[in-house]
Amino acid sequence: MLRGSLAASGCTVDATRAVAAVRSDVEVGLLEDGGRTVGFFPFQGGRRNVAGPVGGKMSDCQGAIVEKGVSWDPRQLLRGCGLRAWQFDHLIASQQPLRPYHYAAAPAPYVDLAQGWESYRAALVAAHKKTFKSIMRKLRRAERESGSVRLELQAADPDVFSTMVRWKSQQYRRTGMTDALAFDWTVRLLEQVLARRAEDFSGMLSALYFGDTLSAVMLSMRSQHVLHAWFPAHGPDPANLSPGLLLWMELLKACPALGIRRIDLGKGGEAYKDRLMSGAVDVAEGSVEL
Q1: Is 286 left (phi over 0), alpha (psi -120 to 50) or beta?
Q2: CA 13, CA 36: separation in Å to the nearest integer?
C-alpha cells in the first residue's frame, strides 16, 4: 500500500482533492495486484491512527473504490495503510467486504429523473397527491404575493453563498445540532467545491427568489448526470410558503434539461425526503478495527 497519493478518477478524486486543499490529513491507500493498481481507499487521519472518511461529517457517501471482481480484505487494507481502525457513517452498504463491520444501516433516498420531469411528476402525484397540490398552492400564492418566483440554477453573486452559510448555521443552532459550519475548514471546503467546474465534478449553487428577495439556496455537487443535494438552506418563512420545498420543485423541473437523471438526497429523516424520493440505497455506520 502507498500513502499520500491522490490517484483516483472522476468525482472521487476531485472530492478528495477539495478536502485535501483545506486539510493536511487526507491520504489515499492504493490497492495493488501484481504491480497494477486495482483500487483506492481515501481516508482522513485521526488520533492514534484511527481514521475516518475524507471530510468527516461533511461526507455523505463513503467506501473504497475497487475494480469490479477484485477481492480485498478490509483488515489487510488497514494494516497496509498503517491504521488501527477506520470508522464510517455513510458507507455504501452494498460493499460486500465491509458488511461484517456494520453497526447499523439506514436508507439514503434519491430522486429518479431518468424519464424526465413529467414522468417523475406523475409518480409524485400518484404517491403524494395532497402534498403535491399543497406545494402547487404555495407556489401560486408566492407568485401572487411577490410578483414572480424565479430559480437561478447557478448563482454567481457571492452574497448568495454567504447567506446560505448564515442560514444553515442558524438552522443547526436552532435545532440543537452541532454547527458544522462553525469550523473554518468546512466553509473553505464549500468554497472549494463551488469553484470546481469539471464535467466529472462541479459545484452548483441554486437560488430561489420571491420577486427580488432571496428565499432559499442549495449548494449541490454534480458528477455528469448525477446531482448530490448537499447544503440546502432557507430564510425566515413567516407566510408559511415553504421556500425550501418550492426550491426543490423548481430544481426538479429544471434538472432534466441539464442532463441530470438522478438526484441523491443523502441520509436523513427529513419529511421532504420521504415526499420527494423515488427510491433509496442503504448506507451503513460501523468500524473496521484491528
Answers
A1: left
A2: 18
C-beta separation of 216 from 207 below 8 A: yes
3-state secondary structure of 215: strand
pLDDT tens-digit profile of 45-96?
A: 989 999 999 999 999 999 999 999 999 999 999 999 999 999 999 999 999 9
Q: Which amino acid is at 115?
A: Q
Give the sign of the dihedral formed by CA 23, CA 94, CA 252, CA 140.
Answer: negative
What single-letter DSSP state applies at residue 271? H
Phi, psi (degrees; rounded to nearest 5) at 73: -115, 115
What lies within 8 Å, CB to CB, of 143 at 6+ separation is: 149
Question: By percentage, how much of the chain surpasses pLDDT 90?
Answer: 89
DSSP symbol at 190: H
Q: Global pTM?
A: 0.90
Q: Which one, of 178, 136, 4, lies nearest residue 81 by Cα?
A: 4
Read out DSSP for 101-161? GEEEEEEEEEEE-TT-HHHHHHHHHHH-HHHHHHHHHHHHHHHHHHS-EEEESS---HHHH
The grid coordinates of residue 262 equal 438522478
Q: Rounded CA gap, 6 and 73, in Å?
A: 21
Burial of 83 (0-12, 13-18, 19+ CB in 10 A): buried
Q: Which three cell numbers stand for residue 257?
A: 434539461
Q: Which run of H or of E encompasses 166?
A: helix 158-174
DSSP letter, residue 250:
H
Residue 31: is it exposed, middle or buried by C-beta count within 10 angstroms (0-12/13-18/19+)? Answer: buried
Cell numbers placing 135:
406545494
Q: How confident is the model at residue 11 (pLDDT cuts 50, 70, 90)?
A: low
Whole-number Å distance between alpha carbons of 52 and 41: 11
